Amino acid sequence: MNILITGATRPQSFKTLKAFEGDRVVMADYGDVPSFPSAKYSFISLGERNDDILAHNLLNACLDNDIDHLMPLYNFEIKAVAKAAVLFSEFNIEVLLPDIAVLSKYNRVYNPVTEHYVVYIKGKVLYSSEPWAPKQEDILSGAFYIRQENEEVITNLLTVY
Fold first, then answer.
1. Helical (H) or strand (E) element with 58
2. 32, 54, 95, 146: which one has the fewest Cβ atoms less than 10 Å from its Cβ?
3. How buried is 132 (Cβ within 10 angstroms: 0-12 exposed, 13-18 middle, 19+ buried)?
4. Strand 124-128 relative to strand 117-121: parallel, antiparallel, unpaired?
5. Measured between alpha carbons, how far is 131 from 53 in angstroms, rounded to an integer?
6. Where are the domains of the chain?
């Protein structure tokens, strides 16, 4: 798998790397990015942030870097990319986000009181920091903070601001 993860200058993006050991990972961010070499991932710049063309800019970055999975982590990217998921799929790029129809259920402002998280692709757990992570929920894709309240597992999209 070749995956592009945004928010490369934010620590939350590095949490997700555990899910993609053995895969080719491209860490991307807007503006200047680090340029040190790593065996586990590479860095690219997405240029200056332009909210009018976010999805188009990310699609070009994916195509230029032979990416087949995109995990946008910036909160300002989420809705634009979720709306454009069909366009990405036409280029054989899977967007790792909940479907736009259920996105609001998971994309809530959330300050994690816990660092428990899980990464899904189509409901399959790629990595979980906790053994009690639900194995499948609404056929989710993406990275999520998880916490238990009573007997229920609460799932919030992992985003950076």
1. helix 54-64
2. 32
3. exposed
4. antiparallel
5. 39
6. 2-97, 104-157
Give pLDDT tens digits for 109-159. 766 666 789 999 998 899 999 888 777 666 889 999 988 888 888 888 998
Secondary structure letter of residue 91 according to DSSP? T
| 124 φ, ψ (degrees, to nearest 5) | -85, 130
Q: What is the mean pLDDT of the chain?
A: 90
CATH number of 2-97: 3.40.50.20
Inter-residue contact 145 to 114 (CB < 8 Å): yes
- Per the confidence metrics, is the pTM higher than 0.85? yes
Please give the biggest Cα pair distance in the chain.
46
Q: CB burial class (10 A; 0-12, 13-18, 19+) of residue 122?
A: exposed
Give the pair of three-digit tokens for residue 95: 């967007």
Contact 145, 151 (CB under 8 A): no
Residues 6 or more apart in contact with residue 9 via CB below 8 angstroms: 29, 33, 34
